[in-house]
Amino acid sequence: MISSILEYEFLRNAFLTGVIVGIIAPLLGVFIVVRRLALIADALSHVTLSGIAFSLLLSKSFTWFAGINPLYMGVLFSCTGALFIERLRSVYKHYQELAIPIILSTGIGLGAIFISMADGFNTDLLNYLFGSISAVTQSDLTLILFISLIVVTTVIIFYKELFLLSFDEEHAKASGLKAAYIHVLFILLVALVIAASMRIVGILLVSALMTLPVAASIRIANGFKQSLFLSILFGEISVLGGLVSAYYLDLAPGGTIVIFSVLILLFSIGYKQIKTKLKRI
């Protein structure tokens, strides 16, 4: 069944992109959940939407802009939003959580303006909102592969620093770790992953792929590294299962991927409860 799907180039692009996203989204999602920043993915996804809408608006207004992949503008907006979040976190030192709704609201506002200026929704924008198998191009795959190399390499190099900041930020600062630099680096990685994931999952659902596999893994994992491994495993199952279902049922892949993630989460919760009851017997 899978081999017949992969006969087509656009489907191969979609599945390769899905495999990559299934790794990098939960990989960063573990650190996001541990740091209690789960809503940051929602904020940056809406900022990315405004970047995509702005790019589509420019392509309507200027013919020479039509050949530029909107994903590039989405990445630019997402990274800019990430930097503003970090800046606002330093401004509101005692109310750092305010930074996320501020940027989220800004992203929604700009997106609504750009969409209305471009005369409403079109097929391209809907593909970005909910994901699309046929919309993934070779250019998208190349960019996503490049982003994944950056993300995985950075996590490997700065794993110890990210781990310390996630569990004990005060101790990390006291030990001489440059926390501000690591914070900015991490949030830029999150911005890149969100921009990379939206072609498959969709802007409105990308945060689910960064949090639901993690939520499932922490129910049954015995440690951080095991949670990291299970999150990636659950992410891959969700992406591949969702893409196959979306292809054969002619559905938006973002929705099917999220539903698979929800089912895995429900299974992990049930497994944990049954395991707890059996121990009591």
Describe the 3D structure.
Helices cover 80% and strands 0% of the residues. It is mainly α. It has one domain: ABC transporter involved in vitamin B12 uptake, BtuC (Orthogonal Bundle), CATH 1.10.3470.10. The radius of gyration is 19 Å and the shape is globular. The N and C termini lie far apart (44 Å). 44% of the residues are buried.
Which terms would index this structure?
globular; 80% helix; ABC transporter involved in vitamin B12 uptake, BtuC; mainly alpha; 13 helices; 281 residues
Strand and helix map with partners:
Blueprint (H helix, E strand, L loop, with lengths): L1 H4 L3 H26 L5 H22 L8 H22 L7 H19 L5 H8 L7 H20 L1 H9 L1 H6 L4 H19 L8 H15 L3 H26 L3 H28 L1
Helix pairs in contact: 2-7, 2-10, 2-11, 2-12, 3-4, 3-5, 3-6, 3-10, 4-5, 4-10, 7-10, 11-12, 11-13, 12-13
Q: What is the number of independent domains?
A: 1
Fraction of residues in H or I helices: over 70%
Instruction: Write down the secondary-structure element order.
Output: HHHHHHHHHHHHH
CATH topology: ABC transporter involved in vitamin B12 uptake, BtuC
Work out the number of β strands.
Answer: 0
**Could you name the ranges where pLDDT drops below 50 across 5 or more consecutive residues?**
none
- Major beta sheet, specifics? none
